[in-house]
Amino acid sequence: MRNIEILNPEFKSLLKEAEWFTTVDAYENVHSSGTHLKHSWYTSREYANEVMRLGEQHDGYPDDMYGYSFSASRVKFRGDNIKAHNEIIERYERLINTFKNNYAMKNNALFTLYPPNGFISWHNNANAAAYNVILTWSENGNGYFEYFDINKKEFVRIHDKPGWSCKISYFGHYGEKNKLLYHTAHTDCWRMTISFIFDTSQSSQFAQEMFIEDISSE
What we know:
Elements: E1 2-4, H1 9-18, H2 24-27, E2 32-33, H3 39-42, H4 45-54, E3 65-69, H5 82-103, E4 107-114, E5 119-123, E6 130-138, E7 143-149, E8 154-159, E9 163-171, E10 183-187, E11 191-197, H6 202-215
Antiparallel strand pairs: 1-9, 2-3, 3-4, 3-5, 4-11, 5-10, 6-9, 6-11, 7-8, 7-10
């Protein structure tokens, strides 16, 4: 897992556009998934150990989360404000297409706004092995991303900072057990994650490195 400093002015402008999804105009028109009630269990290291003990019996997906998803395949609109729903769709598609066209992104894997006490449970994405980019916005930095370093056999917690941050990683599949990446996230403030995946090919590794060079250049 690598943290990448965001310096590119054009990329910063694109992220600024993404912040619209943190406003009430966006999330009040979308149903949230899950509740905050079990966040302490699903983000605990005890639960992480249970998931890891399951091995290949775990399908790779998170078992629970609490947040508002704007991904085209997951969004569930609330109420009958068709104009607002259409604006969400249009802004999402325009934003994602810009990411793809300007930065060679392949697939948008996650686009979720987490309210205070929002979380995503421990999982490993072994079902969707890929090189990936994780973009995170935090209202005031009161949240974290945590993963298990499978080679060092230790938990690593990366605390959020206010505003945007970028993490780069590789999610392995069960055929490459030393590259499995078990991870979770939790927040006590508003937090948004937009992630993209490439695939497992060498060309995708190159695309990821090119992305790093792009956004870390002024």
